[in-house]
């Protein structure tokens, strides 16, 4: 694989933050933006004015992220807010999600593309139900890296035993989850301890600061560069004099690497051909890899349209009309057994019917509730679907792009669920 591949995946880190209400998420993000000099002067002035109006002693950095006035007045963050910042080492996209139980669906939305999750724990309160819930969702969504920030260490006098106790309790719970990389950092978002720079108030802590961890976590191996998958988004036919016979297939590489000259197979038709050319936004390229957007032309005239998938003959995805999925339900209208929905998977759209609800998950104990088949808003459960046409997919744990789906209500066109294929 070329060094460009590594650079592309190393250059941008997407991370999500989660924690219970008042754990200090907004303050932490504000602190990261403030201490890494990612705030404009007018923003800073606005925060200083707002802090003064509220009669607070410290610069209220949470105001940087709590943009909506109605939320500020209630002191609550709702919905998913995306923030962008950069340091000389890396670019970052933060998905800031709410802490309330009733917003599980927002966390699923924010975390679905994340490389890393920051779970905030209040040093005074320790591991709460919400901590377990957010960690389970991070595990379910196969987020490979987790950083547990034990916040508000200033309120427990920076005592090591408080931190060690939380680390031990969390590690016991997390042993049942599938998260390969977990780090623990004692911080005070309010005062900036161990957020951007290491603090002299925690001489017993021998790890890295949060920002250094975010800048250096290795994510090059997170994407699937093994299984070549190219869902076709659109067929490009300019029909112009200069490109009279041009017929290109545009899409985003969902896995693996495609090179000019490679033999490829089109699904569902089963026809094979070879890659004639590959183009990205800047012109011709020799290879395309996840997550690049590219246009591919083939040596043979094959009938390919939106929703088809181009793969390698010796490495094909699963194909089935009967699929099992873990879903997080987004809608206040409960899941209907035998209900009909529209299913979107990569660039393909099919109709489906819910054949069975296998079980619901109690997110706090991780127990399967097999006698409870009612799935409502924010519930997570395992269901069986039958689609009108075969899906070409990989299990979610192997490829997050080809292993995820959304369900849409046929009548309202509202997204009612996000799912991970098993």
Question: Mind explaining what this structure looks like?
Answer:
The protein is an alpha+beta fold. It folds into three domains: about 5-215, 3-Layer(aba) Sandwich (Rossmann fold), CATH 3.40.50.300; about 230-310, Beta Barrel (Elongation Factor Tu (Ef-tu), domain 3); about 320-420, Elongation Factor Tu (Ef-tu), domain 3 (Beta Barrel), CATH 2.40.30.10. Helices cover about 20% and strands about 35% of the residues. The chain has helices spanning about 5-10, 25-35, 40-55, 70-75, 105-110, 130-140, 160-175, 210-215, and strands at about 10-20, 80-85, 90-95, 115-120, 145-150, 180-185, 230-235, 250, 255-260, 265, 270-280, 285, 285-290, 295-300, 310, 320-330, 340-345, 350-360, 365-370, 380-395, 405-410, 415-420. Strands 2-3-1-4-5-6 form a six-stranded mixed beta sheet, sandwiched between helices. A six-stranded antiparallel beta barrel has the order 7-8-14-11-10-15. Strands 16-20-18-17-21-22 form a six-stranded antiparallel barrel. The longest helix is centred in the middle third of the chain and has 15 residues, at about 160-175. The model is unreliable at about 1-10 and about 65-80 (pLDDT under 50).
């Amino acid at each position: 694989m070329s060094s460009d591949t590594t650079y592309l995946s190393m250059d941008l880190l997407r991370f999500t933050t989660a924690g219970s209400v008042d754990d200090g998420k907004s303050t932490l993000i504000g602190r990261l933006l403030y201490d890494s000099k990612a705030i404009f002067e007018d923003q800073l002035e606005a925060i200083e004015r707002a802090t003064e109006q509220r009669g607070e002693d410290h610069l209220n950095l949470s105001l940087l992220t709590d943009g909506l006035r109605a939320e500020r007045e209630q002191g609550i963050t709702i919905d998913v807010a995306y923030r962008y910042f950069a340091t000389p080492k890396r670019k970052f996209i933060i998905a800031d999600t709410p802490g309330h139980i009733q917003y599980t669906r927002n966390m699923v939305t924010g975390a679905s593309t994340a490389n890393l999750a920051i779970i905030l724990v209040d040093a005074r309160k320790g591991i709460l139900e919400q901590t377990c819930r957010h960690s389970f969702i991070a595990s379910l969504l196969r987020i490979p890296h987790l950083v547990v920030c034990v916040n508000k260490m200033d309120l427990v006098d920076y005592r090591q035993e408080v931190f060690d106790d939380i680390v031990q309790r969390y590690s016991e719970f997390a042993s049942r989850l599938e998260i390969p990389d977990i780090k623990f950092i004692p911080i005070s978002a309010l005062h900036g301890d161990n957020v951007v720079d290491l603090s002299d108030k925690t001489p017993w802590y021998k790890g890295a600061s949060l920002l250094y961890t975010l800048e250096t976590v290795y994510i090059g191996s997170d994407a699937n560069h093994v299984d070549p998958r190219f869902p076709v988004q659109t067929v490009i036919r300019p029909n112009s004099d200069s490109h009279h016979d041009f017929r290109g297939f545009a899409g985003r590489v969902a896995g693996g690497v495609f090179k000019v000259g490679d033999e490829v197979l089109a699904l569902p038709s089963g026809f094979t051909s070879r890659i004639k050319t590959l183009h990205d936004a800047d012109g011709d390229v020799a290879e395309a890899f996840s997550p690049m957007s590219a246009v591919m032309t083939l040596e043979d005239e094959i009938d390919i349209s939106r929703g088809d998938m181009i793969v390698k003959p010796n490495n094909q995805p699963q194909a089935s009309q009967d699929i099992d999925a873990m879903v997080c339900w987004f809608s206040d209208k409960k899941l209907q057994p035998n209900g009909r929905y529209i299913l979107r998977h990569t660039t393909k759209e099919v109709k489906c019917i819910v054949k069975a609800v296998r079980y619901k998950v109690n997110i706090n104990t991780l127990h399967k509730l097999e006698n409870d088949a009612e799935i409502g808003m924010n519930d997570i459960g395992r269901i069986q679907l039958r689609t009108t046409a075969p899906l070409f997919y990989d299990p979610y744990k192997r490829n997050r792009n080809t292993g995820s789906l959304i369900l849409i209500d046929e009548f309202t066109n509202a997204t009612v669920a996000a799912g991970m294929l098993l």
